[in-house]
Design brief:
With about 450 residues, this protein is of the alpha/beta class. Among the domains are: about 60 residues, no CATH class; about 60 residues, no CATH class. It has 20 helices and 13 strands. The strands form three sheets. The protein has a six-stranded parallel beta sheet with strand order 3-2-1-4-5-6, sandwiched between helices. Strand 7 and strand 8 form a beta hairpin. Helix 4 packs antiparallel against helix 14.
Length: about 450
């Protein structure tokens, strides 16, 4: 089975390859094709993968190419993890937004809109090429903003594109661990959009254990989301939000923390990864050890500003090991081998949430088999969640409209309608600021 990874020179690719090395079952991935526009980054990552594979019998063969069409031909699965504009673009997203006093995070608020506006046209081009060159391939999308990009690609690939994210997996794992349950046996009642969802129940052997967690202040304060949001707020919601909802519920504090930080998250990652790739220019650099050291630092500083604003402390060791690569592998296994699995994924709504239309991509538990991912029935969203989900989906639709038509007015509407942008005038200035720093937004007229 052949897996093509778009963004193959990206820093997190070794996580995916490491998961593949542990898969010994029949029908596993035997060929990995890395595609990236940057040949130097491809070379660096290929060296890391070669050290990972050392001593592993029958490790998947790795090839690299800067030719997109060559990479796509013959693919059974396409894993999309591209970053349009690179980390410099992410740092610019943060800087422009913070100058206007609004959030610049890469998937939430103004920064997420800017990232989506320059990413959707590229993702659509990829989807069209997959439909032409590898029509039987399944596309697994990790490119952010994951829900928005998956919806854009689904207009050309239908249900053969599925979005993944490690946030719901990590949240469910933490809740199960606190409750003394086996995460592999627990059903996570999770619903929403990507980076905008809530755990409303955790069922073990048919029994919902979440009320026990919500009733115990000590348990609530013992894991990351409990410290991040506070026990009182979680009890008020009657649910545990995805960590990204901290940007909504504590927006003023988070924006202030970002403004006071020495560097934004994007600037930190830009500088950190530039050092990694520079080190990898030396042919005698220990590739895997260098990557692993850099990865540990990256994971430990994840959402540091939010944790500082909330007084949540450092991340726990169990939360530093990644997770999206495990979701990707489980998804590929279920589709390729018809091994049924239940996974939280980004898929088309198909009537699952009555407040959204059938083609809206949502993030919910799905049953996965050889025919793809099928969203499971869920209870309706509570009122507080319905408002946010509908507002953010309306913003996503304006981003899609702007990317499709080149309409500057649609781009302004996307910013102005977002709950975390507080003025139409700010929305206009954001469009001006982003088009000034991003050549990829020159299409907006």
């Amino acid at each position: 089975m052949r897996l093509t990874i778009l963004g193959g020179g990206g820093f997190r690719v070794p996580l995916v390859y490491g998961a593949l090395l542990g898969d010994r079952a029949e029908g596993r991935v035997s060929q990995v094709v890395l595609h990236d526009l940057d040949a130097d980054r491809l070379s660096a990552v290929t060296r890391v993968l070669a050290e990972q594979a050392a001593g592993v019998p029958d490790a998947p063969a790795v090839t690299a190419t800067t030719d997109l069409e060559e990479a796509l031909r013959g693919a059974d699965f396409v894993f999309s993890a591209i970053r349009v504009g690179g980390l410099e673009g992410r740092a610019d997203d943060e800087r422009v937004a913070l100058a206007e006093g609004v959030l610049g995070q890469e998937t939430v608020g103004a920064g997420g809109i800017a990232y989506g506006l320059r990413t959707v046209p590229v993702a659509v081009d990829v989807a069209r090429r997959v439909a032409r060159l590898a029509p039987e391939a399944w596309v697994i999308n990790f490119t952010n903003p994951a829900g928005l990009v998956t919806e854009a690609m689904s207009r050309y690939l239908g249900d053969r594109v599925i979005g993944i994210c490690d946030s719901p997996v990590g949240l469910g794992r933490r809740i199960a661990r606190v409750l003394g349950a086996d995460p592999g046996r627990a059903f996570i009642d999770y619903v929403g959009l990507n980076h905008l969802g809530w755990v409303r129940g955790l069922r073990v052997a048919g029994r919902d254990e979440l009320p026990r967690l919500l009733a115990d202040p000590a348990l609530l304060g013992s894991f990351e989301e409990g410290r991040l949001f506070g026990p009182d707020w979680l009890r008020s919601l009657g649910a545990v939000p995805n960590e990204y909802l901290h940007y909504y519920y504590f927006n003023r504090e988070t924006v202030r923390a970002y403004q006071e930080a020495d560097r934004t998250r994007g600037a930190f990652l830009r500088d950190q990864q530039a050092r990694f790739y520079e080190e990898m220019r030396h042919p005698d650099a220990p590739a895997l050890a260098t990557w692993d050291r850099t990865r540990a630092e990256r994971e430990a500083t994840y959402m540091a500003e939010n944790r500082e604003a909330a007084g949540a402390g450092e991340r726990e060791a169990d939360d530093l090991s990644g997770g999206y690569e495990k979701v990707a592998l489980a998804l590929m296994r279920a589709v390729a081998r018809d091994e049924r699995a239940t996974l939280i994924l980004n898929v088309r709504n198909r009537g699952t949430l009555a407040v959204l239309d059938a083609d809206a991509v949502i993030e919910v538990p799905c049953l996965v088999d050889a025919n793809g991912a099928h969203p499971l029935a869920v209870d309706p969203l509570p009122g507080h969640a319905t408002g946010l989900v509908c507002a953010v989906k309306a913003v996503e639709r304006e981003v899609l409209a702007a990317a499709d038509s080149g309409s500057r007015a649609s781009a302004v509407r996307a910013f102005a309608l977002h709950p975390l942008v507080d003025s139409v005038n700010v929305a206009h200035r954001l469009v001006e600021g982003y088009t000034a720093v991003h050549p990829g937004l020159a299409y907006l007229r």
